[in-house]
Amino acid sequence: MVDELKVTRQRGGNHHPLSVTGFIIDHLDNWQFSLAEMVRVADNVVVVLPDPIYFSGWLSPSHEQHFSVEEINEIAELYPEVTVYY
Question: Which pTM value belongs to this model?
């Protein structure tokens, strides 16, 4: 799943020092595009996700994605400008 994340850095008029998203990408079908866009337009990205240990995240019907600790660490390794909190 995380292997699909590819980002092309193209700095245009929409450049920001920071992009923050809290409990959003776990509700998206295509979270890879959303994360890639945040990385494209911002120097630093902060992503907050539900803790993978808690079952409430797994049981919520509005959650399209369920990130394991390994997947979260993989995102952080692939994108040094991304900080993930859970």
Answer: 0.74
* Residue 70 main-chain phi, psi, to 5 deg: -65, -45
pLDDT tens-digit profile of 10-36? 555 567 899 999 999 998 999 999 999
Residues paired with residue 45 on neighbouring β-strands, in sequence order:
19, 82
Of all residues in the chain, the percent with pLDDT exceeding 70 is 80
Rounded alpha-carbon distances, angstroms, from residue 13 to 16, 18, 20, 35, 64: 9, 15, 19, 19, 31
Domain boundaries, the chain: 18-85
Distance CA 60, CA 75 (A): 23
